[in-house]
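ENCODED BACKBONE
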Amino acid sequence: MAPQTAAKTPYGQYILTTGAGIAGQIEMVWGRYFYESRFQGRQPVADVGPGRCWFTRQNPRDIVAIDNAPDVVAHYSRSLRITLGSAEAIPFPDGHFAGIFCCWLFEHLADPEPAILEFHRVLQPGGLCCIVVPTPADMLAFYADYTHIRPFTAASLRQLAAVAGFARVSTGHLPWTRGLRYVYRAFGEQASYRYICLADRCLCRLGLRNRAHLIMDAWK
């Protein structure tokens, strides 16, 4: 269990002072989508670079968050399983996890290879790794965050997975969910979740996708 107080970090304070209101509520809807579409029934699952722990909170019993900011770990350890670590140094043994979720972290890494190798190490045979990253589709938006280093394409994600030796890889874009905030405000959480699922099942087939963000599913 992490201590209840810890030294403040710039990243940690950003995480702990943002995400109020509808932004945090929509994060939870996305967390449900990722968990139920990929990880339900898998245990244990790692949430690497969890941010405000919107994915971890989908199943606090079976998901453990891993973050490198002591103040984030101290804050969320009051109610969730979270431990100090990083994408390049996950404090668990080989083959420990049935799944790994990592959203909007790899674009911040100067060298993504150690992280993908570490993900492969801690996954069980047949385990699923799901990584979400921005693409070069909107470079102005990408570099609006000064901590961003590189966007990814489907080809570069596949190359990264090949470096680590993943057996099977699938890439695709996030569902098209423009107007999700309006749906949430008007109809609530359940309708917003159904909207994301509908976009995933149907709109992608019509060519409507969020081309600014990629998902890679990789199985060990």
